[in-house]
Amino acid sequence: MKMRWAGAALMFLGACGGGREAPATPAAIDTSPAHVATPAAKPIATERSTFKHRPPEVGDRIRVQTDTLSRMTRPDGVAEGERYISDYELAVRGAADSAVTEAFVVFHKNERHAWDGQDDDYRFAPKPTPLEGKRLRMRAEPLSVEEETGGPVSADVSHLALAAVSDIGMRGAMDAALPDRELAVGERVDALAPALVRALNPRTWHLASGGATLRALGEEDGTFEASIDVQTESGRTLSLSGSMRISREDRTIQEIRLRGTFKEPNGTGGELVYLRTAELSRNKSK
């Protein structure tokens, strides 16, 4: 069984990943509102549905793609920005208590594209992060990151990997937040707001306010509108809104689309556009 699955990392998140297709080329990024407008779900003849709990299993494989663009204008009037693209694949090697406890992760792509705001030819010059090309083993007890061969990794690689794959050792954010009962279209499920923050960056982001509402039910998923106001440990604030699609079969995130603004402690700020999609291949042994 295959489903679109999503879960991400912003320039502010740290790192993250992709669908089966390679990430879009830097020049192709769409910063229009359509970029964060979730395609309409294929309607079904019901206004109520449950979202089933199914824990991860050894043999599950997930491929996650993240594409984020931030833009701002400095006090001197110069525009600058950064794009973050990530593509990683995770194979579950251990699972317990509804959480992945061990995983093998391959980072096919993990790069940033800096823009100096002046020269279009330099607009998205790519620069791979230390994660690009890495093949890592991640464990929950104790929380650790190693090379595929078992050798140590640098502190930088460990930090970026744990930011990208944030749910190691924890029950999935949406799985824990969704109730074990039917939900109706139009119903508020505000517990999904802190779950969304946790899915994006559980280590340094803190929810100030937010909410979520079920807007549509499709054959395999539900679409929620969501908004969050976030304070980070560095003092940055973000205000984001958009949508997320969640599987009705196992509560995994299929897609997250957000757009909003950020503000730095010094008063500067700008715009942020975020898209995350993924593909989940379930273990077929059950």
Secondary structure elements and their pairing?
Blueprint (H helix, E strand, L loop, with lengths): L1 E3 L43 E2 L11 E13 L5 E18 L2 E17 L9 E4 L6 E6 L2 E5 L7 H10 L8 H5 L5 E2 L7 H9 L4 E13 L3 E12 L4 E11 L5 E11 L5 E13 L5
Antiparallel strand pairs: 1-14, 2-9, 3-4, 3-14, 4-5, 5-6, 5-7, 7-8, 10-11, 11-12, 12-13, 13-14
Which structural traits does this protein have?
single chain; 286 residues; mainly beta; Lipovitellin-phosvitin complex, beta-sheet shell regions; 3 helices; 14 strands; disordered N terminus
Structure description:
By secondary structure, the chain is mainly beta. It has a single domain, classed as Lipovitellin-phosvitin complex, beta-sheet shell regions (Roll), CATH 2.30.230. It is 8% helix and 45% strand. Strands 1, 3, 4, 5, 6, 7, 8, 10, 11, 12, 13 and 14 form a twelve-stranded antiparallel β-sheet that branches. A two-stranded antiparallel ribbon has the order 2-9. β4 (79-96) and β5 (99-115) form a beta hairpin. The chain is globular. The model is unreliable at 1-40 (pLDDT under 50).
